[in-house]
Amino acid sequence: MRELRKQKGLSQESLALACDLDRTYIGGVERGERNISLINIHKIAEALGVKAKELFNA
User: Fold this and answer.
1) pLDDT tens by residue, 8-56
2) What's the CATH code of the domain at 31?
3) Which of 10, 19, 45, 46 has the fewest CB atoms within 10 Å around its CB?
4) How many domains does the chain have?
């Protein structure tokens, strides 16, 4: 997810705002410290402009 976010030129904060999630949550997901729900996977994928499955390939 971090790689996709960086490719899009987004900061954690800007991605969090686009997803309506907290910046610390995005950071925790990127570091593998959070168990992410399917709802939030879809929110993040939509904000990044990719399909949800692409978050697992990056």
Assistant:
1) 999 999 999 999 999 999 999 999 999 999 999 999 999 999 999 998 8
2) 1.10.260.40
3) 46
4) 1
